[in-house]
Amino acid sequence: MILAKAFVALLAASTGARMMRKDEVRERQMEALKKWRRGPGPAVLHESTKRSEVQNITFSNPKASEFWVDGSALPLVDFDVGPSWAGLLPISNNPNEMRQLFFWFFPPGPEGSLDDLIFWTNCGPGCSSLKGLLQENGRSTIKPLSWSYGQAKPTVNENSWTNLSSVLWVEQPVGTGFSQGTPNIENEDQLSEQLLWLTGESYAGFHVPYIANYIYENPTLLDLSLQGILIIDPLISSWVVQEEIPAVNFVHKYEGLFSFNQTFLKYLNEKAARCNYTDYVSTYLTYPPKGLLPLPGGFSDITADCDVWEDIFNAALIINPAFNMYRIWDTYPILWDILGFPGSFPQEQSPIYFNRKEVKEAIHAPVDTEWSECSVANVFPDGDNSLPPAFTVLPNVIEKSVRSVIVHGMADFVLIAEGTRIIIQNMTWNGLQGFQTPILDDSFIVDDVGAFGTMHSERGLTYYEVVLSGHMVPQFSPVAAFQIMQHLMGFRDTP
Ligand SMILES: *[C@@H]1O[C@H](CO)[C@@H](O)[C@H](O)[C@H]1NC(C)=O
Ligand SMILES: *[C@@H]1O[C@H](CO)[C@@H](O)[C@H](O)[C@H]1NC(C)=O
Ligand SMILES: *[C@@H]1O[C@H](CO)[C@@H](O)[C@H](O)[C@H]1NC(C)=O
Ligand SMILES: *[C@@H]1O[C@H](CO)[C@@H](O)[C@H](O)[C@H]1NC(C)=O
Ligand SMILES: *[C@@H]1O[C@H](CO)[C@@H](O)[C@H](O)[C@H]1NC(C)=O
């Protein structure tokens, strides 16, 4: 009896203590969110150039008007996104040129710089940069637009990179095509003499350094002055380094999340040991490096008997068929996505936005072309013939650039951050190999919020690891990505 009473009292006390009304919960969330809200004025070094309206860009070439997009009439968007220009342009001046690239150009928002131009390209090969525009860094001028996973309708994106400067999204494949033809923007005199920042994600780890290198080595080609590059969760070396060596470490780091059974963990550990992955990081990933870093087994291609990544992916799918290699903690339900690609697997959940006839017409896209976010089914391309940029052009690009940035989301299992650390420590630029001093914990500070990962800067290269972010850092951590872009462009004093 007494016990029961005590129990009832305890229950009352504990439920009482835990009672939180929904509006109180909401209040706490709003309080936390305040720190993530940015005031206007992203371009801190551009205070004097502050304007209150969208910048009106004019083009000396009268043909530009054919590409103008009416920002007040984008289908399904119930606000005015401001002026922009989009369409197809041939990749060369050859009158018989059949190859055309689709571009979408936005001028800067009120506080953005008119002296700069950001070029963005997405992953792939075969994935569209319009994904970046609609779901990552994008969108517009008056009211930047964002339509990410699970959103019933587009919302204003406060962290659009158009707050920094003009942005040009180009649908790839650009790669070699872009390099051999003069980029299409040569027709837009307005853009000449601007400072160019090349940025991209994933497979763009190949494109961006090669394009940058081509521009640096052919300086008369462009009326733009290339300043630097930013590559996000980039493929820049071999799959063995970017997936296999760090894969089992990654599982241990997120062991509770993967929730593998003990038998499988034991199997993974034994395989990693046999393949010489287990002690790799503790032995070779030192600051400064002790010499060139070896490739376990001396091979750079994935072999079946050491493919721990594949084992992990398959096992993760068994207990979580919604497993998203681009952001490992996703579970069911798979979110609705207006672009039809909300995770590891394409989904047929909606009429795809860029596949709607009226959308294609609004942005001067070819109406009879079937658009899909990734046209190539193989997420793991065999690579092109170029050697990985870390072994070839990347050091030269870093040396020629004012600043170069590599960013990695920590929840990305497609390309794993620790592999990027290995690549950096094995790379020689500006006279030395790798970083000379260690990457410190909590060294990336997001303004007003606090530690949000790590950051390290030496000899013109800054490397960021962003916590709580999957593969697409501007989509999953837009405030962090925006701050990183400010650093790249010299709009802030600290990284
Ligand atoms: C971007 O500009 C808009 C409009 O001026 C402003 O409301 C927003 O806070 C800016 N965002 C950032 C990240 O500075
Ligand atoms: C921008 O400039 C163009 C051409 O100079 C002009 O036709 C248009 O009305 C201007 N738009 C705004 C919003 O000022
Ligand atoms: C490190 O660089 C050397 C020389 O380019 C190369 O032979 C080796 O395979 C690289 N190691 C890794 C882990 O990529
Ligand atoms: C692992 O390292 C040992 C000792 O250096 C070597 O004999 C063996 O071939 C390596 N195994 C693999 C799969 O790389
Ligand atoms: C443990 O995990 C492995 C890999 O997913 C699976 O094949 C095996 O059936 C699992 N064992 C049990 C008891 O669930």
UniProtKB/TrEMBL annotation:
The keyword Oxidoreductase does not apply. Residues 1-17 form the signal peptide. Keywords: Carboxypeptidase, Glycoprotein, Hydrolase, Protease, Signal. The keyword Protease applies. Its EC number is 3.4.16.-. One of its GO terms (biological process) is proteolysis. Pfam families: Peptidase_S10 (PF00450). GO terms for molecular function: serine-type carboxypeptidase activity. Belongs to the peptidase S10 family. This is Carboxypeptidase.
